[in-house]
Amino acid sequence: MQQQNILVIGGSGFIGSRLVNALSLGNHFVTVPTRRRQRARHLVQLPLVDVVETDVHDDARLDRLVAGRDAVVNLVGILHGRRGQPYGADFARAHVELPRRIAAACARHGVRRVVHMSALGADPKGPSMYLRSKGDGEAALRAQSGIDLTIFRPSVVFGPGDSFLNTFARLQRLFPLVPLAGANTRFAPVYVGDVVSAFVNSLTGPHARDTIGQTYELCGPKVYTLAELVRLAGQWARVGEGCGRIVLPLPDALGRLQARLLELVPGEPLMSRDNLDSMKVDSVCSGALPGFVPALGVAHPESLEAIAPSYLDPRRQESEYDALRATAGR
Ligand SMILES: NC(=O)c1ccc[n+]([C@@H]2O[C@H](COP(=O)([O-])OP(=O)(O)OC[C@H]3O[C@@H](n4cnc5c(N)ncnc54)[C@H](OP(=O)(O)O)[C@@H]3O)[C@@H](O)[C@H]2O)c1
User: Fold this and answer.
1) What is the per-residue pLDDT across 294-323, written as a single tens digit (0 to 9) for each?
2) Which residue's CA is the nearest one to ligand 1's atom 40?
3) Between β-strands 148-154 and 246-249, what pairing exists: parallel, antiparallel or unpaired?
4) pTM score of the predicted model
5) 3-class DSSP assignment, residue 33
6) Residue nearest to atom 11 of ligand 1 (CA)
7) Which of 117, 120, 274 has most ligand 1 atoms within 8 Å of CB, for mutation?
């Protein structure tokens, strides 16, 4: 596949950073817009990567970013936002209006290839603002003519630097007991490296064209309840003398009260009522596990057991920068 010029919106985050790194290693030019250059400083040193501080919500700037690209990837996502029906303004802006505007800009500039990150359970009629806005975002993209679209819907994504398992490990280092809402919700955690391989193959792989017009669910090889995941995170992080803390499942009403209180703490809440609403549906793939379709090049997705202990165990941890540098061969 020849060298491509790819715009990765949301490329500074957990999944995006790894995708940008992989595309750069594949000898592709990558541009990463960010609201704050500081957030993307770990990408600045990568070969063929251009980090641009800008506002992708401004149409003129978005037009300039999109023009002349071979492909545009959208990874922008938020977990928390103001409340509203069917969702508040923050979810509308990030998950619905931005994809719609990206698709329109691509069509205006003749950029056909668009790869979009949604989430498992995305549904305009879903139980949470997150899932409803992700569902409407998908619909907005599909409504745009003149683009070649692929949509990915992963379950929770794990890997070094994830916020999911790392947060539960950190909490257990601080507290002897974890009162847990949504304890029975099921997840099929998928490794960030496999998610990135799926994106890279859909953009530049030998069967990339087969992925056009498709929506793919991405899951790891095994299903766990949230309580099981929290216990494993504690065990692998070697808290409580290596065996994790006590996980106390909360009934719905108490879980909601806990989320309400956590929303009042300044900064990003650990858990919101909307996160709880998302967990009213399991985050598991509808088809048989495991394995992605052949065009995505991941026949055997990595298991949590094979990867997570290496970055949760404080004795084996490497920094985010070291991890990126190692994969970049620097
Ligand atoms: N991680 C998971 O387990 C998981 C599971 C399912 C689906 N997803 C989806 O995968 C995507 C990437 O997830 P991630 O975990 O890599 O997220 P992340 O680490 O939080 O990164 C989010 C990215 O989006 C950008 N962004 C956030 N809010 C924005 C806004 N209002 N306007 C413009 N840019 C904004 C950030 O850019 P700057 O801050 O640099 O501007 C950052 O690059 C998201 O769409 C998410 O919903 C993630």
Assistant:
1) 899 999 999 999 999 999 988 876 555 555
2) 34
3) unpaired
4) 0.95
5) strand
6) 75
7) 117
Residues flanking ligand 1, CB < 6 Å: 10-16, 34-35, 39-40, 56, 75-78, 94, 117, 119, 154, 156-157, 164
CB 297 within 8 A of CB 26: no
Neighbours of 199 (CB within 10 A): 27
Dihedral sign from CA coordinates of 158, 160, 166, 167: negative
Q: Which of 12, 15, 281 to mutate to test the pocket of ligand 1 (most atoms within 8 A of CB)?
A: 15
- pLDDT, one tens digit per residue, over 215-273 is 999 999 999 999 999 999 999 998 877 777 899 999 999 999 999 999 999 988 999 99
> Which atom of ligand 1 is nearest the CA belonging to 39?
40
- DSSP for 14-31 reads HHHHHHHHHHHHTT-EEE
CATH fold, domain 5-158+190-220+285-302+319-327, is: Rossmann fold (3.40.50)
